[in-house]
Task: structure prediction
Amino acid sequence: MANTKSAAKRARQTAGRSLRNRSVLTQLRTIQKQVRSAAPPSADQIRAVISAIDKAAKRGIVHRNAAIRRKARLNKALAVAK
Result:
């Protein structure tokens, strides 16, 4: 439990951010699974996932290197799909 008003506010802010970040991560995982399960994933689907990964990385939800790794794997799938 927080001892000061500012610590209590910080705890509330952190809880709100965590909830938002968790929903973004869940959505990201879902669309990645959809693309992986699609037999031949379309280029548009892969580009949409890459865009979502970029947005999450820009907001700090996904680590920059993790985003780069995920995008590299998707780009490899995109090259195979062509």
